[in-house]
Every structure is written in C-alpha cells, then in structure tokens.
Amino acid sequence: MTVTIGWYMSLAAVLFAIGAAGVLTRRNALVMFMSVELMLNSVNLTFIAAAKELGLVEGQVAALFVMVVAAAEVTIGLAILVAVFRRRASANVDELSELKG
Amino acid sequence: MIDYHAILPEIILGVTVLAVLATDLVTREKYYGAIVGMVGLFAALVPIFTLGVCDDLAFCSGSLPRELFGGSYVVDQYSLVMKGLFIGAAFIAILLSVAYLQSDRFYEGEYYFLLLAALFGAVVMASSRDFITMIVGLELVSGPGFLLAGWRKADEKSNEAALKYFIIGVIAFALLVMGVSLLYGISGTQLFADLAVAPAAVVDEPVFLLGMLFVFLGFTFKISAVPFHVWTPDVYEGSPTPVTAWLSVGSKTAGFVGFLSVAYLAFPTHANLWGPLLWILAIASMTLGNLVAVKQTNIVRLLGYSSIAQAGFMLAPFGAAAAAGADLQQAFGATIIYLLIYAVMNLGAFGVVIAGGARVKSYELDDWAGMWRWAPGLTVLLAMFFMSLAGIPPLAGWFAKLAMFSATIGVGSWWGYSIAVIAALNSVVAFVYYSKVVKSTVFDNVPDHVDPEALSRIELAPTLTVALGVTTILVLFLGVFPGVIGNLSKFASEILAGTF
Questions:
Q1: Where are the domains of chain B?
Q2: pTM value surpassing 0.90
Q3: Binning pLDDT at 50, 70 and 90, where does residue B57 land?
Q4: How far is CA B31 from CA B21, B120, B313, B355, in A?
C-alpha cells in the first residue's frame, strides 16, 4: 500500500480539526496556545505535501515562513500570558471576564 | 535589478523603525522616539508622491505598475493610495499617543517601535501580490497589535483585552493560512495574478472553494466583521485608547487591503462565488453592530460596535456588485472612498474621546453628560465627528455613504437594492446612537461627582490639539470638496481598468 497525497491531506485535516476543537473547548490559555500550534503545523504539513506532489519548491518555502510567524506569535502569546499571570496567578481564560456588554 | 525607487518608502520606513529603537536605547527622553518616527513618516511620504506623479514626467524612468520580485510585490496606484492612508493614520496615532503615554507609567520607547512596526506590515500588505508576502505583512500588523493592546500592564482589563485579541487573532490566522495552503495545493501557485487565471478544472474543485472561504473568513478578523468580530468591543475598551484608535483605523484598513487584493486581484473571475458570502457578512456585520451599539453605556465600546457596523457598510459594495456580476471597478472605488473618509473621521472621534477621557478619567457615557459645561470646544468636535460617522452633510461622512449607496444601487439587481435598503435602515439606527451621545454631552446635567470647574481648567495637550486640528480640517474640507477623495479613488481603481 503506497502513501499518497490523500493520506497527508487527511492527516492534516484531522490535526487541524483537533487543534480547532482544542482551542474552542479547553480553558487553559497554555493548552489553547498548544492547540493553535497544532493547527499551524497541520498547515505546514499541507504545504509540504502539496509541494512534494506538485514538484514545486514554493510550498516548502511557505512552510518555513509559517514556522517563523508561528514562533513569533508564540513569543507574543507567552509574553501576554506572563503579564496576565502576574496579576492573577491563573491561566484560566474563564476567569478573565471583566469586559462584557 | 531591483527597482529601488519603487521600494524606497519601505526602505525609509524600515530604517525609521530601527532608528526609533536605537533612539530608545540612547536617550532618556522617550518622546524623542515619536519625533524620529514622525520625521521618518514624512520622509516616506516623499517617494510615495514621486512614484505617483512619475508617469507624467520626462526625467523619471519607469511607470506604474512597477513589479518586483517576480510579480509578488507590485507598486501600483492602489497600493500607493493605501500606503499614504496607512502613513497618515500612523502619524495621527502617534500624535494621539504622546500625551496619553506620559500621563501614566508606560513604557514609551518600545511603544513607538511597535506602532511603526505594525505600520510597516500594513505598508507591505498594500503592495503584496502573493499570499506569503501578504501573510507575513498581516502578522507584522497583528503581532505588535496584540502587545499594544496589553500595554497597560498593571490593568487587568488591558491584560484580558490582549489575551482575547491574541487568541481570536491566531485562530483567524490559522484559518487563513489553512485556506492559503489548500489553494496552493490545488492550483500550485501563490501569486494572485496566477490564481486569477486558474483553469476551470482547478476552480471547480470543492477544495478551491473551501480555500477561498477560509481565506475570506480569516481576513474578517482584521476588519472586525462577522464572524470574527467578538473581540472588537472588549479589546477596544481594554486597550489604551490611542491603541484602539490605531486598531480601528490602521489595522482595520490593513485587513481591508487584504480583502480588496484577494477579492479583486486573486479571485475576480470567481466573483459570483465570494459575492454572496460577502453580501451575507456585510448585512450581518452592519445589523449586529448597529443594534448592539444602541444600548452601550461606554463610549469606547460604542465606537467598537460602530466600527463593526462600518465594516459592514464597507463590505456592502463588494457583496452586491460581485454577487450580481456587475462592474467591480465602481465597487472597488466605493470601498476605497469609504476607507479614506472613515480613517479621518474615526481618528478624529478617538482624538476627542482621548482628550475627554484625559480630563474626566472615565469612558462611561454617564460621566460624560454635560461635557458642554467643562469642555465646550471638545463637545463641538465630538458632535462633528459623530455626525460625520452618521453620514450627515456637509461633513465628510456623507460622501462615503453616498459612494456606498450609489455603488450598491448601481448594480441594478435585487442583490444591490436589498442591501441598500438594509444599509439605509441601519443608517437610521446608527444616527440614533450617535445623536444620543451628542444630546447627552450637550444638553444633560453634569453628574454630581464631576466638578466642571476643575475639569475645565485642565489644558489640552499640544500633540492632541494638532491631531484634532488636522482631522477637523480634513473632515470639513472633504465634506465640502469630496472630489479630492473621488479622484484618489479613481486613481486607485485604475489598476482594475480592463481586467473584467
């Protein structure tokens, strides 16, 4: 049995769905960040699989760009989380509910 | 051979961003960063102007559009107009920030660095004509925005705003890049120009549609339209107000640049597919934004919902013209007119809110009642900007509304008529809450805990005066002479001539 592009795409879709479900249901900000990383990595997988299938190199370059952006995003997210944690010693997003209306 | 004239604005801005960071390093007077930044912004406007007029001059080589890096970076009329808008918005945002930052214990040097970095991202987005450049530009706008939203580090509201903005932002970003990767997988290209001429066998694939849907939904986050609008009021309220001003104008316009480029340059031939989607999003955004804005008691939240509604108005021409298969050039022009005028009047409105908030130390409308007693000048400006947002002539806002209505009705099918009727009803609702604020500030009694005598003695910071002066003059001038904006939008829409 050969592994075709469909396998990679299915895996990417499953990873994306798991990530999305994680972001929407988990309430710990750190776990939410991890779930977002999972979504972005499924994007990378799609890019690489497509690039391999098409015999083009741009998809691999795109994956590198997505990685860089994702790394920068995580840095920002953790910085914000540290600021939140200093004030209330909890990473639970449900406790952050001062702004509403 | 790189066309250095074409990317001179970016080079100048890049140097400015680094220079601001270096200024922070060597001086204790942190507002020097603002001065360096504003000088850099002025310098960057010069090549934008020379690029715009270059066509007509004999000694100047090259004409628009100028393509760089294999067509993934294009300097054309549209990108020049948008770059001018971004730089102007950043200029006003810096002017609005200086006094605010010095009023409390803020990190000031890094603030200007981050604001200008976000501007740099927006400017890159305006010229990017492939998805990877667009994504990097978009994240350069978003990233600093997340940090700036949490700039009041000791304030729990600001922390919460930053975290909410960040989480919704990265979900939208993940959706967007997923869409890009699907489009790449099916078509084998990232370039907008190549996607526009993708063969029918590719376009008819469901994956192509899914990719397009994800890309459009991803961009709705930046423009704070439905379905990624939920962050808007919370982040607007929690962030430092000058940051809110930037998010509501600079960052939102950057999102619209993404929308305009993707819709009209990458998918013009599939307008019948994305037209209905944007038609629905436009109606949902304007209706939801306006209806919820009516019962707001905080002036910044009110402007947040107003910003959602305005995004709906800006999307209306897209949806109507594309769904009906009408001339897209007029719809494109109408959105650009709206963006330019919205930037001026919204920055002005936030200028008044910042100036008033600096005195009364609150953004609750109850505390602003009777503002006339302690700040008559500001109250007049507040009334002017809010009436402009409502679209009352002779203030600039009426021309934006006019362009939007004529673009939607002009398509001549029920797609256009129905959205025009809904937009008209929405304008009435919008007028209700804008005039409610004006009425309360002019006629109501000052609440007991507010001392008008003391408040009226507080002086307006000089930087705020300049910002308010510039926006006031523009709102009045453009309301009386809207042709200036009309010509700019015609100039920008030239890039679409003959493509459909």
A1: 269-500
A2: yes
A3: low
A4: 12, 20, 37, 19
